[in-house]
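Good morning C.,

I know you're traveling, so I'll keep this short. The sequence:
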Amino acid sequence: MIAFTDGKAIIVALPSKSGGGMYLVRVSAETNKLIVEHACPAQRFKSSCSHIEQAIGFWKILNPWENYPWMPSREVISVQKQIVLQPTWKQITGKGAGMDVAKYY
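The tokens, ready to paste straight into the viewer:
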């Protein structure tokens, strides 16, 4: 897994379930909300999307205080939006980078 930041959010690159490419999922935080932007065929057909769960899991690894029991949980707002890789984004390295977050969520 590869992740980037645009300074306001993290953008996680996740493989498609069909193996035909990658999806970019952008996760940003607002007061008591996580905004998850992602264009996925599963969402269009009102099915659950594992890419959203994986991206949130990665976000929680990079923001470990979110896992404290006294922290209020954030409402997840899913937005259907195409995310396009930008040359200004910086790749995230270090703790959590390259991890399989599915097992941590």
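Safe travels,
E.
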